[in-house]
Design a protein that fits this description.
Helix content is 43%, strand content 17%. The protein has 228 residues and is of the alpha/beta class.
């Protein structure tokens, strides 16, 4: 997967239009982009959209709320019956990946879905996540890729965002672990000036990443071009 575009799961227009941007995958977000008061409605809306709209041209990924919140279980058990391709595991650690896999085991069994058909994409959002990325990958055979979140990683370090050089170690460790495991590695969303996207994506590709998360549809074409 070269490009994974973030889309708000509580916006009906985005649910309809997300496939039009040419991304390899669409990551429907139930977490950061959805206010607490709208989370119940958002997960139901997303489940209905996945059941009735045609997303066959893209890989459908769902980003649930953090595993430390009750919404995590509700997100997975509500949306899994509509057969998304993958769920993200936010703030990934081995035990969170195991927890997500167990919920998918239950959802697949209860809804007569193929066992193991829905996969997991752990999100590396902390220094501990970077150091333990190999263990995170090994926590479940459902893991099909790893996603890097540099913003949260730097916040965990207490470091102000700077240039690409401060991400070399984290990016390298994630990319190497994914390569050894034979899975995709998806680089962090880019939040700088638009003309810097290609260079940022190129820096990630040079370290071994196989794709990148797009923060919106405007970034997809550039990311696809860099990782072609």
């Amino acid at each position: 997967m070269k490009s994974l575009m973030i889309a708000n799961a509580n916006n009906p227009k985005i649910l309809l239009d997300a496939v039009l941007y040419g991304a390899d995958g669409i990551m429907f977000d139930l977490a950061e982009s959805v206010p607490d008061t709208e989370k119940d409605a958002a997960r139901l809306l997303l489940a209905e959209a996945l059941a009735f709209l045609d997303y066959s041209a893209v890989e459908v990924v769902v980003r649930p709320n953090c595993p430390c919140q009750k919404d995590f279980e509700l997100d997975i058990l509500t949306v899994a019956p509509s057969k998304p391709c993958d769920f993200v595991v936010p703030m990934a650690k081995p035990e969170f990946v195991t927890q997500a896999a167990a919920l998918l085991d239950r959802a697949e069994a209860e809804n007569d879905l193929p066992a193991g058909g829905i996969r997991l994409i752990p999100s590396i959002d902390s220094a501990a996540g970077v150091e333990n990325v190999a263990a995170v990958i090994a926590a479940s055979p459902r893991v099909r890729a790893v996603m890097f979140n540099a913003k949260e990683f730097l916040a965990d370090l207490g470091a102000a965002a700077g240039g690409a050089e401060q991400l070399v170690y984290a990016r390298s460790k994630i990319a190497v672990a994914c390569h050894v495991a034979g899975i995709d590695s998806l680089d962090t969303p880019y939040a700088g000036k638009p003309d810097g996207l290609a260079a940022d994506a190129g820096a990630a590709k040079a370290l071994g990443f196989t794709g990148k998360v797009a923060s919106d549809g405007k970034q997809v074409k550039t990311i696809n071009s860099v990782f072609a």
